[in-house]
Design a protein that fits this description.
Low-confidence stretches: 1-6
Radius of gyration: 15 Å
Number of domains: 1
Shape: globular
Helix content: over 70%
Number of helices: 5
Strand content: under 5%
Mean pLDDT: 86
Length: about 130
């Protein structure tokens, strides 16, 4: 069985990228006193999601860098994953709202987000130590 190839949708990225950035920034708002390290985490997680949605770039590498940056700030992997789940939830809600009159379009965009999240799950599996 062949894995579905990511579909680059410029319209999805056009509205999703600022939303993702807002979600990430708000999620880590308590880190504002951490300066450059907090900004680096926010940028890395944004780049991770850009790669996930575009289907381009090294998702495992971006994910690993996000986890390293979070670790330097005293945040665990569960906090990063909580933010990722919030991103997926918000994207799905916006898709449902934006495409309420076009179920086919809503379904296509929802599949893109689900595939992106699936690639993130695959990246996490690659980073797990082998037994």
């Amino acid at each position: 069985m062949h894995a579905l190839q990511p579909h680059h949708d410029p319209d999805l990225m056009r509205w999703a990228e600022p939303l993702i950035g807002d979600i990430i920034s708000t999620s880590y708002a308590e880190l504002k006193d951490e300066g450059r390290e907090a900004q680096f985490l926010i940028r890395c997680q944004g780049m991770l999601w850009r790669a996930l949605i575009n289907g381009a770039g090294s998702v495992p590498l971006f994910h690993q860098e996000v986890l390293r940056a979070a670790g330097r700030l005293g945040l665990g992997e569960s906090r990063v994953e909580e933010v990722n789940r919030q991103i997926v939830t918000e994207l799905m809600l916006v898709i449902a709202s934006r495409h309420a009159r076009s179920p086919r379009e809503a379904a296509q965009r929802s599949v893109q987000v689900a595939q992106a999240y699936g690639r993130l799950t695959g990246a996490r599996a690659l980073l797990q130590p082998q037994a």
